[in-house]
Each structure stands twice: as C-alpha cells, then as structure tokens.
Design goal:
The structure holds two protein chains of two kinds. Chain A is of the alpha/beta class. Helices cover 44% and strands 19% of the residues of chain A. The chains are: A alpha/beta, B alpha+beta.
Chain lengths: 340, 675
C-alpha cells in the first residue's frame, strides 16, 4: 500500500513538472528529409529568434518520410514538414493533409518556389537539380567524348557506360523522367528513353549512387544531381559536372503545415522563419539554388549555368501523372531481366 | 475406512468419465507460463501475418458510378441532364476494367470521357460526387462533397479521379498481369535451384574431405567454412563488385559477362549458404557404420560403387535437408540481390522496392504472400525428411575410420583449399577495399572509410545499436525460448496446448524475414493497436529478431532437454519441490552448453540480419547491417565494406568468447558427463 501511495505521489510530482514545462515552451514535431548534419544548424538558427519553440525532428529519406506521412493520413503525428520534395508535398496536398497558409513575406520569394494556390499550401526552400557526372579518367581510357546534351547520351559510343536511378524508387530518377517528358513531349520523351535504355548499364535504387559510381570509375557517366557531383569532385574524384543543353529537371525542398496541428500559431511562426532571407542564406551552404532571389552565393565545383538550364517544371503534371508514368516506365524497362 | 471410501468414489466416477488428476499448483504455473509464451508468439507472429494477408486483399478501384457530370452548350450555360461517368464509359469504352484497378495513388484524367473536349472551348462543366465515398481532385485540391461544382474547360482538364478502397483479389490480378512483377517468381526459383545444386555439391565434397579422408589441416578448414555465417549476406555482394565489377581485379575472368545479375547472385549465394549446407551434410557423414564398408569390400565393390551404394544413401537425408535449407535461404534472401542483382528482379527485392520505393504497401503484401508459398513448401519438405531420418548408428555399429589414400587425400586437400581461398578471398578483398583511400584512383591506405558519421546509414551509433540489439536478443531470446521449450517438453498432460505451441514454435522458420518485417509494419504501425507505442523502438527490433530466429533455437533447446530423463521431474515432485526450482537448480545448469549455443546463434544473427529489420528501424535505432545496406545503396561501397567487416570482427570475437565460456562452463558444471 505504502509503495503504491509513494508511486502515485511521485507520479503526480512528475506530471506537474511536465505540465509546468509545457507552459514554458511549445514543442513542434517536424518531419524532414534534410541531411542529418544540417538539422542542428537549422534548429539553432530558428531558436535564436524563437527560443520558446522546441523542434522535435523526425528524419528519414524522402521516400520513407512520404510513406510515413501517407500512412498517418487519418491520424497525423507531424505539426510541420520542413524540407521535403515538392512533388511529395503535392501528393499530401491532394489528400487534403496540408493547411494552406501564406507566410509573412512570401511575396519576396521567386514565384517558381511557391504553390500556385492562394493561400499557398507549401513554400519552397531550395532546389536540387539534375546533372550528369562524367568521369574524365575513365572516359579517356574508353575513348568517350564528353556529352553536351541529353540526346548525346543515346549515342552508340556510350553503350553500357551510362547509369541512372530507377524513377520508381528514387526521387531524382523521377524528376529526370518527368523532365524529359516535359522537354521532349510525351511521344518523343519515351522514344528518347527507349534509346537511352540501350546505353544504360543498370538502374540504381538511390539518386546519389550514379554519381558516386561515376566518381569511383565503376560506370563513367552517372545521371544524378549537381549537388552530389560537386561533393564528389571536392572529395577528389576526376569528375566533370555536365549540364545538358536541353535543360534539366529539378525538384525543390519545401515547407508546409500539416492540417490538424495542435499548435497552429507556433507552426506558422516556424514557416514564417523558413522563408526569411537568413534562412535562405542558411540553405545556401549546401544548395546553390534557393528560393529567395539574390541570396545564393556560388557553391564550389557547382556548374555556373545551372540556374538558366532549369526547366519550367510543372509539379502538378509530375505529381498527378506519377503513377501512370511509373507504370509505363516499368512496363518498358523494368521487365527486362537480362542485365546487359 | 476413508481410503476405501475414496477408492469407491473414484470407481464410481470412473464409470461416468475418464479420471483426470487434479491440477497441482505446479501444473497451473507451468500451463500459465506456456500460455503466456504462446500468446507472445501469437501476438508477434500470427496477428501480424494476418494483418498482412488482409492488406494484400485491400484494393483501390475507380468507382465511375460515384461521379455525375453535366455539360453546357457553347454559350457556357444551359447544362445537359446529369449523367454518371459509368454511363459515359459504357458508351465510349475509354477505360478498360483492368485500368480501374489502381494503387492508392492512382489517378484517371476526366477529360478522356469527353471526346470533343478542348481546353480552349467556352463549354463549362459541372461535376459532383454522388456518394460520400467519391473523391476527385481539381489540380491538387481534394473534393469529397456531393455538391455540384462548376468549372470552365481549362480548369476541367485538371480534374483527376481518385480510387476508393475496396476488398478483393484485384491486387493479385494486377500482380500476375504485370510481367515486370510476376517474372520475379521464375527468376527467384531459378536462382535458388542453381545455387542449391552448386552449394550442396561443393559442401558435400568439402564435408566428405573433412569426415572421410586423412588430409591435413582439417581444423583450419572447418573454421574457415564457418566464417560466412558471421557476415551479412550483403558482404559477398560487395566483394564481388570489387572482384568482378567494371574496376575489378578479376574482371577478365567473366569474359565480358556482367557480375550484376544472376551470376553475382549465384556466386554470393554459394558463399553465404555454404556453412549451413556444410554443417548439415557433415553431421550426416560423420555417422557411418564401418561394417557396411567392410561388406562392400568383401563383395568386391569398387570404391565408386561403394560410394553410390553406401556413402550417398547413408547421407541422403542430410543432402535433401541441406538442399531445402539452402533453397529457402536463397529464395528469401534480400541483401545479396539488392547489392549485386542489377536489373535482375527477385521476389525479396520486389517487396522492398514496392514498399520503400513506391509506398505501395498493398503490392508489397501481395509479393510477400507469393514469397511465403515456396518458402513454406521447402520448409515442409525439410521437416518431413527430417522426421524420416532413422538411427543409422545401432548399438552394434562400428564407427568408420578413414584410412590414408595419398591420391584421394591430396585431391580433396586441393579442393578444400580452393573453397578456403574463395571464402577468405571474399573477406580479404572487403577488408582491403575498406582500407583503400579512393578506389581505384588512389590505392594508398587510410581510415577515411571508417568515418561512418559522415555517411548515410546512421554512423557509429548504428554499430553500437547493433551490439545492443545482439546482446538483448541473446539474453531475452534465450530466456524466453529455452523456458518455452522446457514447458513443452516437461509439463504433464495438456496435449492439445502443447501441440499448438509446438506448431507456433516451428512456424517462424517458414516465414521469410522480409515478410515478417512488412507484417510488423501493418500490425504495429496501426494507430488503433494498443501495442503501437513499440513502433520505432529498439524493443520492436528485439521482438522481431527473437521471433524470426525462434525455430532453430527452439529445436536446439528441445534436443538438449530430450536428453534429460523425465524422472528428474518425478523425483522433484515426490520430494515436494516446485518444478521451477528444479528448472533453475538442475535443468538450466545441465543444459548450459545448449543455452550458450542458443545465445551465440541469436547474437550472430541479430548482428547480420537485414531482411526483417529493414522495415522497422527508425533513425534512432539504425543498425550496422542496415548501414551497410544504405551506404551501398547511396554508392558509398567502400565504407559499406568497412562496416561489414566490423560486423565480421565483432561476431568472430563473440564466437571466441563463446568458445572460452563454453570451455569454462563445461569444466565447472559438466564434470558429471565425464566419469
């Protein structure tokens, strides 16, 4: 009996302490796919302005976080999503899971980076852009000339020397495919991919793997994203980062409020912060293209003409046709069991 | 007087029904505990599998009858009478029945039902759901209401229909109608059959060399043959990339064929299944009756004939059992084809691709159901064969002792050396690659690849998590499994209960890890489940791993317990000692060698398993084996090799500790065995 009484007493004490703490500050559960090493930096900057709001991060890769959010559709656990692919956010929007909100100062952002609805359901942070990683040492050994366009990649000399991510599992792979369909049009886009498929050594699961494999010389040409290429180049890989002349696909990391959050006010404060100039400067450390015009400083080893090459990406097309595109892609290329 | 009264009472009751002994306190405790452990198996295996099965039947279909439209004339007003899309489709036949089955993210554009549609025309459209179940998107905005909305042509082209949830066989139909998916069944079976034939053949000759020849260094060969058990199945895949990949040392040996695909999967499968096949066949070959060989010599049988009429029949159960175990391991393995499979799709990887890549949980469940079938068949055949195994060694048998035969011994020695070189080469190349700075451009040594914190996969924390998981699984798992086995073996009566328990204990062996892991998502990630709080914790990884490896541990425990006479229980009962006291004071100490075997088995498997836990880890509970997978996935192959070798060294160290502990335990508690 006494033991029981004592535990209740302690329980009451703990409960009062916890609720006391809850009065002192608000906690937000934030889902993210940002690189793990950046999280603390982002949270510290935010807390300089809002010391009373604590961020509880839940981090995983884009695919996993999207799956998690969709699985929690009827019982959302997240308050805010900070740093997830815009195409993923569009999927969530179409499920009615996002709370539309126009953050203070949204008009100063590049309109490309803001949802077209008013008020917008999501706002962008930075972009990751497709590029081709080209291993100069291996290319010389194999006698390959450097490609300058996507069409070049279908040339017979590259047979078996190109590697790209599988669009079904990789966000980068999907942005490539959806951009080709937008650049070349539906029919020619598939014709291009048919020709490219003849040269592809294999399709990887992850979007950064092709560039790393190119860096290691395993396959000389990797279709990946520019940021990854710049990182590998900085690590000493003999890489050229090529921006194909037809234009390149891209996706952005974006922010949104989850509908039904317990603390809308705090969530709005966080989203307000994510589009400020300071926040965009913070994104610029890793990303060369950010939503706030005029902020971006060049990132080392990053191709210069990248911003102009970014296509006018139709995210709604990409999100709404994702299932159909992937089905078509799989029936064309995934069923082939011969591994080259 | 009273005695006779009781006897007559018993007699009178006997005439009505069978007499049952009154349950003692002990019996109640034991049955209660058995029910608790039985419930554990039900909750951690049967319920999740049920959840998965029902998920595979949950489909998404477009219900065209749930939408009504009205079209205006050129003036933009004067709307036509409402008509459902179903009626339009029956008229035009634009969407076929199979297109109406879709994943949860399926969409159908609405304009295809209007052949005259042009987004520039002044025609306006009205659209509504006829029931609350209907859903459509305007752009990305979800509309679920039954009110009419009016849209101009340019907006109307952005309308997409969404499927609604139903129950049915639609997913299975889609699966078998999609060649990209169903092709994997054939691929998986072919790979498993080829690997099985090669592994069993090699393992047979290796075991033959160790048991039936007089070659040298048998202890060394035995040690080497067991090494592959200590590494995740991902590791041989990584080694093959370095050996036969486009930058590999031995690339020329493949004569232009690519290692990415069936060739790689087969070579890697032979590596990681070899010890399993070797162990089983070696046990079969170690028992033999020399009298049969003498008889064969007396009858002037040639050595070749003796081999086929005495040796092979004596080992046939071992061979069949090994074949099915290897088949099962290969067809359910996920790590190896993930690393080296290239474009060659197999079932286990398909589950991962469906779930992690495409968030198509329903299709993942369908592939799981497909994968369980061959695994269960292989398992059932193996059990059947094992139950047929009869004692070859009778009391009158004379153990066979091989006699030296220089030519045979040296041939077998050469063969065994080749196997040893293969195994050690795979491990060696991984260690070498892990220490090289930037393969293949800078071959100087550095420890850069060990800076796991700078890579994907969770860093050094994941390594520590793995050790934590290994220790917890070993301690908790051994306690639960051994106690459960004790209850099944030694409790009285309760026949049905014991039979059911035994069945549950055998089931995990037949369930592939990927399937178990996916089933756990469906069961534990359901917000309505009171056990939902376990999701994402280390506890669920421990539970999953214990369940995944339950069967072999359970069999080890029952074998050890069957060697103990049931008289112990009778004696303790007559001394009025509770059975649990007997359990702790006698049974556990006597069975310590088996208990240690179970715990090392659980530890090593917890360190190397990928398949079950890949769906269950959270960022805070990432594991070393998962880190190998994720680093390889991201293209960081050298750090993946480095982490894989860390697992190898840890397991090797655990194995050595286990040997020392076993020796110590044996000398202290098992002195009675030697007299």
């Amino acid at each position: 009996m006494t033991i029981f009484k004592r535990t209740t007493a302690i329980g009451a004490l703990v409960a009062s302490m916890v609720s006391g703490a809850a009065f002192a500050e608000t906690e937000l559960t934030v889902y993210t796919a940002i690189e793990a090493e950046d999280l603390t930096r982002y949270a510290e900057q935010f807390n300089e302005q809002h010391p009373d709001i604590t961020i509880n991060w839940v981090r995983d890769s884009t695919g996993v976080i999207t799956a998690k959010l969709l699985a929690e559709r009827d019982n959302p656990q997240a308050d805010v999503i900070w740093g997830l692919a815009a195409t993923s956010l569009l999927l969530l929007k179409s499920e009615g899971m996002l709370e539309a909100y126009a953050p203070a100062g949204v008009e100063s952002l590049d309109p490309k980076f803001v949802d077209q609805d008013n008020p917008p359901a999501w706002v962008g942070m930075d972009a990751w852009v497709a590029s081709v990683c080209f291993n100069t040492v291996e290319a010389e050994r194999l006698g390959l000339t450097a490609p300058t366009s996507w069409m070049d990649l279908t040339d017979a000399q590259y047979a078996g020397h190109v590697i790209m991510p599988n669009p079904a599992s990789s966000g980068t792979g999907f942005l490539d495919v959806s951009s080709w369909l937008q650049i070349f049009g539906e029919e020619e886009g598939w014709a291009f991919m048919d020709a490219l498929h003849e040269n592809i050594a294999r399709y990887t699961h992850s979007g950064s793997a092709p560039c790393k494999l190119a860096a290691a010389g395993e396959i000389p040409i990797g279709v990946s994203f520019a940021f990854r290429g710049a990182k590998s180049k900085a690590a000493g890989a003999p890489l050229d980062i090529i921006v194909p002349s037809e234009g390149v696909g891209w996706d952005m990391e974006a922010t949104a409020i989850v509908a039904g959050t317990d603390d809308l006010e705090a969530a709005q404060k966080l989203v307000d912060f994510t589009i400020t100039k300071e926040a965009n400067e913070m994104y610029n450390v890793g990303y060369a293209v950010v939503a706030y015009p005029g902020v971006a400083q060049p990132v080392e080893h990053f191709p210069e003409n990248l911003l102009d090459a970014m296509i006018d990406n139709d995210f709604e097309f990409a999100a709404n046709n994702r299932a159909a595109i992937l089905k078509e892609w799989q029936s064309r290329y995934d069923g082939k069991s011969d591994p080259q | 007087m009273t005695e006779t009264a009781t006897v007559s009472a018993i007699e009178s009751s006997e005439s009505k029904r069978v007499v049952r002994g009154k349950l003692s306190r002990d019996d109640i405790v034991m049955r209660g505990s058995m029910i608790v452990i039985g419930l554990y198996l039900v909750v951690t295996m049967v319920f999740p599998l049920y959840a998965m099965l029902s998920k595979s039947f949950s489909t998404y279909t477009f219900d065209l009858a749930a939408y009504e439209v009205q079209v205006s004339d050129e003036s933009g007003e004067n709307f036509s009478a409402p008509v459902t899309l179903l009626a339009l489709n029956e008229e035009l036949g634009v969407v076929s029945a199979s297109d109406l089955n879709a994943g949860s993210d399926g969409r159908i554009g609405v304009t295809q039902f209007f052949p005259d549609f042009s987004f520039r025309s002044p025609v306006n459209y009205r659209l509504r759901n006829t029931t609350d179940a209907g859903r459509f998107l305007v752009g990305s905005t979800l509309n679920q209401s039954v009110e009419w909305i009016e849209l101009d042509s340019n907006t109307f082209r952005r309308v997409q229909l969404r499927p609604v949830k139903e129950t049915g066989l639609g997913n299975f139909r889609t699966y078998f109608e999609t060649p990209a998916l169903s092709q994997s069944i054939m691929n998986s079976v072919i790979i498993a059959v080829i690997s099985t034939i090669i592994t069993v053949t090699l393992a047979f000759w290796f075991a033959y060399a160790l048991n039936r020849s007089c070659m040298r260094f048998k202890g060394f060969f035995r040690l080497v043959a067991m090494a592959p058990i200590l590494v995740p199945s991902l590791l041989p895949g990584i080694a093959l990339v370095y050996l036969f990949g486009n930058q590999g040392f031995l690339k020329e040996l493949l004569f232009g064929a690519s290692i990415y695909g069936p060739i790689g999967i087969v070579i890697g499968s032979v590596f990681f299944t070899f010890p399993h096949a070797f162990l089983i066949i070696s046990t079969a070959l170690s028992i033999s009756d020399a009298r049969l060989y003498e008889a064969s010599v007396v009858l002037r049988g040639s050595p070749w004939r003796t081999f086929w009429t005495v040796t092979i029949p004596g080992a046939r159960y071992g061979l069949v059992s090994a074949a099915f175990v290897v088949f099962n391991l290969v067809i359910t393995d996920f790590g190896l084809p993930k690393v080296i499979g290239g474009q060659f799709n197999v079932l286990a990887v398909d589950i991962y691709k469906q779930v992690i890549g495409q968030q198509n949980f329903e299709m993942g469940a369908v592939v799981s159901v497909v994968l369980v079938l061959p695994a269960i068949v292989a398992f059932a055949v193996d059990r059947l064969v094992q139950s047929k195994q009869v004692a070859l060694l009778s009391a009158r048998s004379v153990p066979y002792a091989p006699s030296p035969n220089a030519r045979l011994d040296w041939t077998l020695f050469a063969f065994s050396s080749l196997i040893a070189i293969f195994i050690l080469g795979i491990l060696g190349i991984c260690q070498f690659a892990a220490l090289v700075k930037f393969w293949p451009y800078d071959l100087s040594f550095s420890l850069n690849n060990y800076q796991f914190d700078r890579m994907d996969g969770g860093g050094w924390a994941s390594y520590l998590n793995s050790i934590k998981l290994g220790l917890l699984t070993a301690v908790v798992g051994t306690a639960v499994i051994f106690f459960g086995a004790y209850l099944v073996e030694k409790s009285n009566g309760f026949k049905t209960g014991r039979a059911i328990f035994q069945m549950f204990a055998m089931l995990p062996m037949a369930i592939p890890g990927m399937v178990l892991g996916l089933a756990y998502i469906f069961f534990f990630n359901n917000p309505d489940n009171p056990l939902h709080f376990l999701y994402g914790t280390l506890a669920i990884l421990v539970i999953c791993t214990v369940t995944h490896f339950y069967t072999v541990s359970h069999l080890t425990a029952t074998t050890a317990l069957q060697q103990m006479d049931r008289e112990f229980e009778a004696v303790s009962a007559s001394l009025k000692q509770p059975t649990l006291k007997l359990f702790t004071r006698v049974t556990v100490p006597v069975s310590l060698p088996a208990i240690l075997d179970i715990s090392i088995y659980l530890f090593i498997n917890a360190m190397t398993t990928v398949s079950a836990v890949v769906f269950l880890y959270s960022p805070k509970t990432s594991l070393a084996s998962i880190a190998v997978l994720n680093m390889d996935d991201a293209g960081d192959i050298a750090p993946a090799a480095a982490m894989g070798m860390m697992i190898f060294y840890t397991n090797a160290a655990a194995r050595i500790l286990h040997l020392i502990a076993s020796r110590g335990v044996l000398s202290r508690t098992q002195a009675w065995r030697r007299r």
